[in-house]
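Appendix B, example 12.
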Amino acid sequence: MGLLEDKKLADLEQKIEKLRQPRNDFFMKVKAEVLQHQKTKFHDFLKEHGFQVSEDQHRQAIEGNYQGTIKIKLSYPKLEDSFFGADSVFDLSYFKNASNKPVRTCKVGMNINRTSTPSFGGVFIGGTMDAKKMEFYEQTLIPFLENVGTADITGDYTLTILEPVAPMSGKYTDFSDLLNDFVS
């Protein structure tokens, strides 16, 4: 590929970065709001069920204690943490009889609903990889970023049990539904 093509590819990549930045910034703002909402919902659920609730922000955990015999703990991620397959991952633990060892644990993935950004697979027949990238950028990625903006990031989300997969594998809209299944 010659100098002109290299420059064109660099220009396209710069344009993509400029288009992605507002989307990424808005996503992080929404993610912060959703994380706070989840923490509040978890806290409120425990309070409604008679638990004494405390939060340790240093350890990033909320704990609910019921009469010293039942404890439910939610460890939450930092905003900037990223995970494969989820926007955020919470660790949920259930303790009984004042034991320090949980009787049940699970990882809960949270995904903020949004349109998937097209990605370049790199599979091609003929031509050069850079030429195929430019074609993908011009015909697919840039039009997508220009058209979608942030309109698809509404703050709607889904909670999913990641580990263990069975017997709970449903999708949830908040921790109150999930906790009912988790402690059953």
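The longest strand covers residues 88-96. The radius of gyration is 22 Å.
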